[in-house]
Write a structure and sequence with these properties.
By secondary structure, this protein is α/β, with parallel strands linked by helices. Helix content is 39%, strand content 13%. The relative contact order is 0.16. The structure holds NADP nicotinamide-adenine-dinucleotide phosphate.
Length: 320
């Protein structure tokens, strides 16, 4: 029996609501889509591989074929290792989707070999943090028009291990460490979610809550790069040792689902969760000056320029 706790027991329905989940063709993202679909939501799967997303969509629809009440699943291409792709995806959503009630920044890459995104950022920081930062900023005007809304960012307990090195985010001056780069990107996830809540408050925007979370240690494809960065067979070995303590993807999705739909946390914002309970993240993740510094750096790196997501007007959908 896996040793874990934490479940979303809410029976809240999402009929008439729209949710976007990034990187959800597998792992806990796929389970999150399944849950929202069963609650009646229109779920937009933002995935880099439309082929893999199609297979996941078919599987979910098959699993739910006997349910009478369910939502709708739509696939849209979004490769988080390309800011161009993030911009194209966001434009398509803004042009076509009248509302966005839930955004789950779920996609992640862990401990990959040294590499860079299309825009030249270290793969994990660029994919896990910067792309989700830009995505959230671009969608915010529509999210503002869709309140009550929730923005959920999937982090990891790994955020506690290392710091963000602002002088060398892309490992140009120091030796690359896959574990450190992952930790840096996951600390950025928590700081981003916290500062987003602060900024929404400063801008007198009500009705949008933010959440970051550690989903647990889960049997997913996240360890796919371990054999390359550690040693051949390490993924299997680690999986074997940790197996009794690991959650299934369905169990691992519970905290994301809790933060997205549960009435119990409907009046909370800017907090960090684990096992469906708000808990303290690492001390570094509670530092507002640090969070502001990351925000400014991220805005500069993704080239937000004069665009202010908090004051920008919702462009509205394009009518045919
Ligand atoms: N599993 C754990 O134990 C654990 C622990 C702590 C935190 N987390 C976090 O949980 C989240 C989900 O991970 P998981 O465990 O479900 O892992 P997973 O099974 O590997 O799923 C990760 C998802 O992210 C997608 N993705 C990766 N790079 C992408 C990109 N450039 N553009 C778009 N999508 C991309 C993957 O798509 P492809 O299939 O196309 O690569 C996949 O759908 C991650 O943020 C991870 O850091 C997981």
């Amino acid at each position: 029996m896996p040793l874990f706790s934490g479940r979303c027991y809410s029976t809240a329905k999402l009929v008439g609501k729209t949710a976007i989940v990034t990187g959800c063709n597998t792992g806990i993202g796929k389970e999150t889509v399944l849950d929202f679909y069963k609650r009646g939501a229109k779920v937009i799967m933002a995935c880099r591989s439309t082929e893999k997303a199609e297979a996941a969509k078919n599987e979910i629809e098959q699993r739910c074929k006997d349910l009478t009440e369910k939502g709708d699943i739509v696939i849209e291409k979004c490769d988080l290792s390309s800011l161009k792709s993030v911009r194209e995806f966001s434009k398509k959503i803004l042009d076509t989707e009248p509302q966005i009630n839930i955004l789950v920044n779920n996609a992640g890459v862990m401990m990959c070999p040294k590499g860079f995104t299309e825009d030249g950022f270290e793969t994990q920081f660029g994919t896990n943090h910067l792309a989700h930062f830009l995505l959230t900023m671009l969608l915010l005007p529509r999210i503002k028009s869709s309140t009550p809304a929730r923005i959920v960012t999937v982090s990891s307990k790994a955020h506690t291990r290392y710091d963000i090195n602002f002088d060398d985010l892309n490992y140009e001056k120091r030796q690359y460490s896959a574990a450190e780069a992952y930790s840096q990107s996951k600390l950025a996830n928590v700081l981003f979610s916290r500062e987003l809540a602060n900024k929404l408050k400063e801008n007198n925007i009500d009705g949008i809550n933010t959440y970051s979370l550690h989903p647990g240690v889960i049997r997913t494809e996240l360890g796919r790069h371990l054999d390359k960065v550690l040693f051949k067979g390490s993924r299997r070995m680690i999986g074997f040792v940790l197996y009794p303590f690991m959650k299934s993807p369905e169990q691992g999705a519970q905290t994301s689902i809790y933060c997205s739909v549960d009435e119990k946390c409907a009046n909370e914002t800017g907090l960090y969760y684990s096992d469906c309970v708000a808990t303290n993240p690492d001390r570094k993740a509670l530092n507002d000056e640090y969070a502001k510094k990351l925000w400014e750096k991220s805005a500069e790196l993704v080239k937000l320029g004069d665009y202010n997501p908090f004051t920008a007007t919702d462009p509205g959908v394009i009518k045919n």
